[in-house]
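In full, the data:

***
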Amino acid sequence: MPQEFDDYAGRYEELLQDPIREAFAPGSKFFADRKWKLIQDFFARQKRPLSSLRWLDVGCGKGELLRMGKGVFGKVAGCDLSQEMMVSGGDLDICLQPDPDRLPFADGSFDFLTAVCVFHHVEPGTRLALVNEMKRVLAPGGILGIFEHNPLNPTTRLIVSRTPVDQNAILLRAGETEDLMRKASLQAVETEFFLYLPEKVYNRMPWMEAALKSVPLGGQYATFGRNNTGDSNQHGG
């Protein structure tokens, strides 16, 4: 996988282009914006100010999502297996991840970890090892957020099937992601489905997508889990 993404890095945005994807939301900004809003809304419900949290994005790529949190979170950092994908991230605190299931950070050094469209590139037999490693880096009470393509959405499956960067992707359902968290002794807090509405429609009626967040047919989903190990002051879910 690292070599694949080193090869893709120079043409990454071009390789993501698909007629359906472009009709839904031209470019990539809308997709990052939606994830950023989900993160903000989740922690608002948890009553945890972002300024008090340290955030690590695993598989950060070019850092589009991390930049949205820079100056909002107390600390933002990222890592990726592909050196070439991180070339444009000189303004961010990012580093090379040495191994698919090993993170170059100390135990309990972050309050929030994300993996955004990463796990469908991870071999199913090694996914739990990566979740366990992410849990190791989470502080007690910390949150892991996994964002993934939803294989129950036929349009998502079609786009993935013809996107070069996803040629080896194996999609996982939300239930599989929740199960990975449980096996790693993380408390699955909530799963939200999103990307039902094209950008222009969503901008006019965001309430409609919010009403559908529990219906498992959105283009993507986000599953949040909490590390309760050693946490004597668990936050409400």
Observations:
- The longest helix spans residues 29-46.
- The mean pLDDT is 89.
- The first strand starts at residue 54 and ends at 58.
